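In response to reviewer comment 3 from the previous cycle, which asked for concrete evidence that the modeling workflow produces usable outputs, we include below a single protein chain processed end to end. The sequence was submitted unchanged, and the resulting structure tokens are shown without manual editing.
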Amino acid sequence: MCSPQVGSFVVFSLDPISMVERFCNPSLTHACQNLKMGKYVAYISQVISPYPSTHVSAALHFVFQGTSSPTFDWIEGIQQDMAIPVLPNTRHPSRRPPLDPGVPLPWNSCSISPLVVTWAKVAPSCRSP
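The workflow returned the following structure tokens.
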């Protein structure tokens, strides 16, 4: 089986220096060295695998930990009822069923927005079943 798989959750980090090195801009590289980076969690909703290729493109929906306020709009135009809860979060204004990551996330109040997506180039990894 190869990953990433559609419907899976991934933990990843970004390397801003390698992302900008092709621009050969020392001030940009220096600015990236000062960024504080962390780890992120995302849901994979689509994978495009052009053959032959050493990388695939994956559609990532960032998992966010938000408020349960009915006025929630962390990005303009996105309302709370447009989000999809992720277990252990089961709260949704219209009782939308949560996504199941296989093992409940260690945080409460997590959701994804199907309307906010970014694409990433990913080196797939394969293992025997």
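The longest strand covers residues 39-48. We consider this sufficient to address the reviewer's concern, and the full set will be provided in the supplementary archive.
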